[in-house]
Design a protein that fits this description.
The chain has 2 domains: 47 residues; 143 residues, VirB8 protein (Nuclear Transport Factor 2, Chain: A). A hairpin with a 3-residue loop joins strand 4 and strand 5. The chain starts with a helix and ends with a strand. The chain contains 5 helices and 6 strands; from the N terminus they run H-E-E-H-H-H-H-E-E-E-E. The radius of gyration is 32 Å and the shape is rod-shaped. It has a 4-stranded antiparallel beta sheet with strand order 3-4-5-6, with helices on one face. Strands 1-2 form a two-stranded antiparallel ribbon. Helix 2 packs antiparallel against helix 3. By secondary structure, it is α+β, with helices and mostly antiparallel strands.
Length: 205
């Protein structure tokens, strides 16, 4: 009779151990499946497709902190492009300056006002002058906020009889602001200052 009880107890322990092992296995498999499912969802959500010229282009989303240096450099580049790209057309000048001033604070507006008071834009229009800019390099220090930047660029001033080339060096700081259609990178240039803007050479046309 005691042997029978021992057999029943060992059988119960066996079933108990098997049940615990089975439950543990089920929980492990379920957890793994859930983890892989969420991982797959995150992976799919990080991929988007953009239709351009009839072709689907795959793009990837990323955290803002991963893109700060790239976005900061592009913000600085676009600001300088709009501020220094001029044509002998008042509407073109106003359109570009307006876009530039959305990307910077009053320090840029002050430089624009100074140029306007000195008749710079009037001379561009009356002299049929075009101005182009090529950004050579942009250094951004993201170790300390607000982010300090330094921009090195080359200006080309195209007149009827000559083409002048200038070296332009500016500096300033970048502060985070809300993104918008007028400011897609979500930065604002502060304390913008021109360090150097000197002629390099002039060639006759």
């Amino acid at each position: 009779m005691f042997k029978k009880f021992q057999h029943i107890e060992s059988a119960f322990n066996y079933v108990k151990g098997f049940t615990i092992a089975l439950i543990t296995l089920c929980v492990t498999v379920s957890s793994f499946v859930c983890y892989k499912s969420f991982q797959l969802v995150r992976y799919e959500q990080s991929h988007i497709y953009i239709l351009a010229n009839g072709k689907a282009i795959e793009a990837f989303s990323a955290e803002r902190k991963d893109n700060i240096p790239v976005e900061a450099r592009d913000h600085v580049k676009m600001f300088h492009f709009y501020f220094f790209t001029l044509d002998p057309d008042d509407k073109v000048i106003q359109a570009n300056i307006t876009k530039a001033l959305y990307l910077a604070d009053a320090s840029a507006k002050q430089q624009y006002d100074n140029l306007k008071e000195n008749g710079y834009y009037s001379n561009v229009i009356s002299g049929n002058i075009s101005q182009e800019i090529t950004v050579d390099s942009i250094q951004v220090n993201t170790d300390q906020y607000p982010f300090y930047f330094r921009c090195n660029a080359t200006e080309k001033i195209i007149r009827t009889t000559s083409i002048s080339t200038r070296n332009l060096v500016t500096e300033g700081y970048l502060r985070n602001v809300s993104r918008s259609d007028n400011n897609p990178h979500g930065f604002l240039i502060e304390k913008w200052n021109t360090i150097e803007n000197k002629d390099l050479n002039t060639t006759l046309r």
